[in-house]
Amino acid sequence: MYFWGLIMKNKPIIVIGLTGSIAMGKTETAKMFVRAGVPIFDSDRAVHDLMVKDGAATDMVEQAFPGVAGPDGIDRKALGERVFGDPAALKKLESILHPMVSDRRKVFFEQARAQGCDLVVMDVPLLFETGAQKQCDYTVVVTAPAEVQRQRVLARPHMTVEKFENILARQMPDNEKRRRADFIVHSDRGISYAEDQIDQIIKKIRADQE
Fold first, then answer.
1. 124 and 106 in one domain?
2. 0.85 exceeded by the pTM?
3. HSE toward the beta carbon, residue 37, CA cutoff 13 A
């Protein structure tokens, strides 16, 4: 335990890894942690910020994948088309982005510790798929029945069954994520139920440190 506490040397800060497959409710769950007073490091947001106009990674990504940059930075749709289904291209992209995201994450955690936070959440869509759970003290998986997930996904603009199936193929099955998780949040039972789950998770983690 105390993964980041050991690295940061001073007061331990507990890292909670938050994940969930597409349309399981991870984004709303992250907001619940924030409302409960736990700061969130959003990995997707960090990647987005790195690739906007004049972003730290924009020039490097354009050099690696010529033609994906536009007036507002990297065109993520164009970039996705270049790396989707191409493991070598995806690995090249990750070699650019992952170190930068890691640096931002460390700064975020250091700031949280300086502000007296005892817990932080690391929001990572592909937490287990990328091995990022090794950087966490606890993991939380957000889940919902498959039929609920499917309804939510296909209600999104421009989403198709084919796109949905392609996304699922890249993600670890929900039942395997649940098997690996320390905690599970059910997002199909209403906001109050989910918020109560978050409160109980926070209490349990803090109690473990006493």
1. no
2. yes
3. 7
